[in-house]
Amino acid sequence: MSVPQRNANLESNGIVTYVAGWTLGGGTSVNNMVFNRGSPYDYDGWANITNDDSWKYSNMLEYLKKSENYQGNFPSDQHGYDGPIPVSQPRYAPGLENWLEAGRSLGHAITTPNGPQKMGFMPREFSKRFGRRVSAYAGYIRPFLRTRRNLRVIAKSEVRRILFEGNRAVGVRYITNTTEGGQVSNIAKARKEIIISAGVIESPLLLMRSGVGPREVLNEAQIPIVKELPVGKGIHDHVVLGLTFVINNKSLVFDPDRDLNPETLRIYNAFGDGPYSTSGGYVGQAMLASTVAQNEGNPAWADYMLYPIQSASAPAIFPPAEGIAMADWETPVFCGVAAVRPKSRGTLTLNATNVDGDPVIDFNFLSHPQDIQVLLEGIQTALKIYEETPAYKRLEARLAPIEMPACDNLEYRSEEFWRCFIRQRGNSFLHAVGTCRMGRGQSDPDAVVDSRFRVIGIDGLRVADASIIPNVVNANTHAPLYGIAEKASDIILRDWEDRPGGSSSPSTFKKTHRRRTWA
Ligand SMILES: Cc1cc2nc3c(=O)[nH]c(=O)nc-3n(C[C@H](O)[C@H](O)[C@H](O)COP(=O)(O)OP(=O)(O)OC[C@H]3O[C@@H](n4cnc5c(N)ncnc54)[C@H](O)[C@@H]3O)c2cc1C
User: Fold this and answer.
1) Is Protein biosynthesis included in the keywords of this UniProt record (predicted)?
2) Is 34 annotated among the ligand-binding residues?
3) How far apart are alpha carbons 179 and 158 in whole angstroms?
4) Which of 52, 55, 372, 439 matches a 20 to 30 Å C-alpha distance to 391?
């Protein structure tokens, strides 16, 4: 949980709950599987920040393609076809045609989310095969568990500290939970190097707990300093909020109570199709540029995303649909509005009095006024879509009344009302990045890793996960992370091949020590 935000989620006292997939496959085992590479401009921005052209989209494309087994509706040479992660567009997509028609009538292109992302309205693609999730674990690890002698998974375990000899990382201390409810402490020594991929929250915590972080944080927590680096500084995320509309056609939404039954289960098992194959009614999206992007000279680099949710029940963080006055034939639908190139930056630090406890996270959401402006324009576009386009007029779409006591003193639906609403309801999109920011190396005061994933000033230690992303992509994060992971593995192999007398031959860690701590 975050510290109370001054400008976001005020409806819930500003507390933002950030969840992650604490399991094999991480977030890809629990997420909504929405597959979006982000804009080519995002990657070009990273190349600029790192001064390393290998991060440009044109150079990252080989890695994005390598991870992909594209089965969607926009085949082209921009996609990969024999990677481990299937990418598909479900046939079951209630309401998608209305969404695309609305976009067309507003003069936007109907386009592809990934090949590469362009501005406009588009269906959503997902990391699914046959309507089923394929996680990082299912795609990259499980198939090789029995055949790769340099791969070993130690489940139910958690790395607690990175061990150093001078400025060289030499191993990790980890605990394994036993079936009897106890814990065993072990040390694993690295033969070559250590790669941390514990995610945007845990990777920086692991570094700080081990002595790599900001001087003031380590001093306060009385942790001996191995290397002073700006770990945890720069955390940021997309900010999302939901609008609820009412339409007159229940067949255009996924209703679990109505749609999940033995017959639809049979269809799912036989064809991977039907209501069981949906990710909660997510069917499409629009990638659009606000006046902020346009005034900055980036009219083709979307800074807000809209996405219809064709579901009878509200997804998490959206206000509940119960209590909305509706006729029998009507149903709620939802529209997500997200600021996807946020400028606000926050911090993640250790709790100095309990370094192994929960971190102190201040996303500092919506502290930059332009983030609020972008959301405001996103809301205005959503209202136009649902209230003014023929596609939704036919459905008699209307905005469900908004109960927001904190904004009651403002004229309903005025600009000031929406600004208040944004602060009350803006929340994390669960796409946080930036806690072990990648940069130019030693000379970059904001950088924790260099553009080859190496922790600056430390030998034998890299970080490869969402924490290294300096500026979040303008869309969901797991697709770019597959590309980043492919790039990391390529760089690491090459670095070892290039060493004098070196080889990239398989090598696992050496387990050196076993100590029962408590049972
Ligand atoms: C509910 C939810 C919905 C989402 N929906 C989408 C979506 O639809 N589309 C999309 O693109 N993105 C989505 N995301 C975001 C996306 O899943 C994440 O950005 C992505 O998974 C981050 O990858 P990562 O490798 O950086 O970290 P993670 O996926 O968090 O992986 C970190 C791994 O490290 C392990 N770990 C952590 N600490 C330790 C430790 N100390 N020792 C050992 N292991 C450790 C964890 O168990 C986990 O397996 C969603 C996220 C969530 C939580």
Assistant:
1) no
2) yes
3) 15
4) 372
